[in-house]
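Thread: Newbie trying to understand structure tokens

Hi all, I'm a second-year student working on a class project, and my supervisor (Dr. K.) asked me to get a predicted structure for one chain before our next meeting. I've only ever worked with sequences, so writing a 3D structure as a token string is new to me. If someone could post the tokens and maybe explain what I'm looking at, I'd be very grateful. Here's the chain:
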Amino acid sequence: MSNDPLAALRAEFCVRAVEDRAVLARALAVGDPDRVERVAHGLAGSAGLFGFSDIGAAALAVDDGFASGRGLDAAAADRLIAALDALP
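---
Reply by user tm_fold:
Sure, no problem. This is what the structure looks like when written as tokens:
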């Protein structure tokens, strides 16, 4: 048994992050920036809570592009996908 009170939630986050990665890749492939923004925003808000600061920072970079009015930053989205690919 783990002493980590967030272990179960962290595991759920990882499962969801894998799903989010697939959704993000599809959204990028079909040119759906609204979906990219929603996924990135969700990850930006939750990744850091579970200790995934690389994912959180990458998601925040994508989210900031939308929040500032610049729109989709493809390089930032690629970094987010790479961070999600690095999940244990």
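A couple of things are worth pointing out once you decode it. The CA atoms of residues 74 and 86 lie 19 Å apart. The radius of gyration is 13 Å. Feel free to ask follow-ups in this thread.
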